[in-house]
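Researcher: Can you fold this with EPZ in place?
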Amino acid sequence: MQKLAIQGGTPLRGEVRISGAKNAALPIMCASLLTADTLRLTNMPDLHDVITMRKLLEQMGVAAQVAPGEIAFTGDLINKWEAPYDMVKTMRAAILVLGPLVARFGDARVSLPGGCAIGSRPVNLHIKGLQAMGAEITIEHGYIHAKAKRLKGARIFFDIVSVTGTENLMMAAALADGVTVLENAAREPEVIDLANCLRAMGAKIAGDGTDTITITGVEKLGGAEHRIMPDRIESGTFLVAAAATGGSITLTETRADILETVLEKLTEAGAQIKVQGNTIHLEMNGRPKAVNVRTAPHPAFPTDMQAQFMALNCIAEGSAMVVETIFENRFMHVQELRRLGAQIDVEGNTAVVKGVDHLEGATVMATDLRASACLVIAGLVAQGETVIDRIYHLDRGYEHIEAKLEKLGANIRRLK
Ligand code: EPZ
């Protein structure tokens, strides 16, 4: 089990290039199942989840040509319409092959994704939507088996906003017969990036980025070239780390328009932020002020930034409330932060964080991807050494994070 050792106390200074977005790359890789032509993706992040998804597609017969930061997928020889449990259990996003497989081949067997640390993560809305489009779905032995001669356009209402639910059904509808309307759809920027890629392949999609997306099915989709959008959560994570350590950093190859609520909260915490084109500069002089956050679907404050802001609030001036409304168990980092001396009270989905003037380094354990990022931030500000165990969670979603942090002056090393 690999660990990270961090000596806290150094303000982060310098420049960091933001990688392509994990949560855009994963659904867009699955779009390669929708065509027999080549889908070439650039600005691809080098992440464990991307490797897992590539292997999942390859075992179905998709050919993948890998180059640094690029993967070209060709789906002309797909001969297996199945996502096995051993690949789905480590990466829930594998559910995103379901819609494309049913849409193109009329048959798919995808393992039910297990839950994960942050919640039960059901996929009932994905299934309900495909049934509305005419798929016959049975669930047995832990697998979803979906069959359809040809999917038909339908009007689908999401009673809960679901990011991958929206993405799965948008891909399925792209090849369906007729018009599909997704209501109460997710508005995340990654949904728009997927829609842009699908349009480049010949799909007819309108309304992405709003809560109503209309897809007019076509007979066939072709190949395309698509550049993955920058990762807004990686951007937010580095900005919070710089704010927490009282540093001064510049993010390059990112975008500010996809991060507005996070930038507002950082400004409220006392950071100076300057945006120029695709760079964001953050300067933090003195101790941050505590800020309340309440997660909700985009464009509200993102749940994937909740743990990072909790770390910031641990050493901020004053107290703050952190309310998690998306996942039922996304406070796993609280116990670990308390080991570092944080003062946090949790009542249901609300945590009250009372800022302390310093944290003390300790050994802590990562439980999920964003909780790991939170512990890295806490380790960067704690006095003494913090050792973080189970950092495979971190490698799933952050490209070369210790190299990027070292370049910003952090005293951090990976323990084999
Ligand atoms: C996506 O997960 C992201 N993952 C998550 O990022 C992110 O936290 C989440 O959206 C919310 O923004 C990817 O894009 C690969 P949801 P997803 O469906 O789509 C409930 C990270 O750290 N729900 O929007 O799985 C669900 O239980 C990861 O990068 C149903 O009830 O999340 C949750 O309470 C973590 N039934 C809520 O909806 C369903 O069929 C939102 O989930 C689907 C979801």
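Model: Folded with EPZ in place. The longest strand covers residues 3-7.
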